[in-house]
Structure formats: C-alpha cells, structure tokens
C-alpha cells in the first residue's frame, strides 16, 4: 500500500470537494507567503551566488 502526503492532507481537510480545494489553495498560498517572507530572506546571505564581483577596466 502506497501512502501519500497529499492524499493524507486531502483526507484531513474538512468539507465537500469545493471546500477542500479552497482550503488547499489557501494553505498553499500561506506556505508560499511564509517562504517568501521569512525563509528565503534568512538564507539569502548564505547563498554563494550573492558574491558577485565585477572588475573595472
């Protein structure tokens, strides 16, 4: 038997299909907002592509 995280999440959301879709979209947007607000700015200084130098002529 194969268990899926998304299947478990779908079963945990209450209500009929339309409510589940709405709640899933709200949950997705909340996770994206949290990543863009806190996680990505916190790890940005640790990324190697921020050390860009341009040499003069």
Throw out a few tags for this protein.
single chain; 57 residues; mainly alpha; 2 helices
Compact description:
With 57 residues, the chain is an all-alpha fold. It is built from two helices and no strands.
Task: Provide an overview of this structure.
By secondary structure, the chain is mainly alpha-helical. It contains 2 helices and no strands. The chain has helices at 5-12, 17-43.
Count of helix runs:
2
Q: Identify low-pLDDT runs.
A: none
Number of strands: 0
Largest sheet: none
Oligomer: single chain
What order do the helices and strands follow? HH
Per-chain topology:
Elements: H1 5-12, H2 17-43
């Amino acid at each position: 038997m194969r268990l899926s995280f998304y299947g478990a999440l779908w079963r945990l959301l209450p209500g009929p299909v339309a409510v589940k879709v709405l709640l899933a979209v709200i949950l997705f947007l909340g996770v994206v907002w949290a990543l863009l607000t806190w996680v990505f700015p916190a790890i940005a200084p640790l990324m190697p592509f921020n050390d860009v130098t341009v040499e003069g002529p």
